[in-house]
Amino acid sequence: MRRDPAVVFLGEDIGAAGGVFKTTVGLFEEFGPVRVRDTPISEQAIVGAAMGAAMTGLRPIAEIMFSDFFAVCWDLVANEIAKSRYMTNGQVSFPLVIRSANGGGARFGAQHSQSIENWAMMIPGLKVVAPSNPADIVGAAGGLDPRSRSGDLLRAEIALRRQGAGSRRRACRQAGDREDPPRGRRRRHRRAR
To answer: Can you give the pTM of this predicted structure?
Structure first.
């Protein structure tokens, strides 16, 4: 946000409260209420405002508190945001990021614990990013196409906030530049018991 004044952040309780998971602590104080905007509890309004902001040349980051709530704004995401660049032959693009917490294990209940990245992966024009490190998060904000960020975001978001500005510049690259093994071929190594 320091390097690009076109980046704005929209979401519930992301301003003075610092986000429900405290991943936006300090952004409101540093960038003010024009670039870090608290929104009403309406995922459709958040995504719709981000869509409008992107159409006017801004690069919004819209935070949906839990990915389960994508369902209420699916028409905007699937039929408008993801396809508009192709329907207008590149005249209109939506360079926005929709960020959300994803998956279970944090005791938020069944309605806040789904993993919806497989839904989003089926939409032409939408890029789904599940960052594994801060560099992937920074890189996800680039490009002209809309992106949905999901996965275990909390650790990576907090790690990004702890890095200095120089580290962020070095880390800035397009997500997916690194050669990672395909998801189904990754292995987790543990010590034997």
So the answer is: 0.71
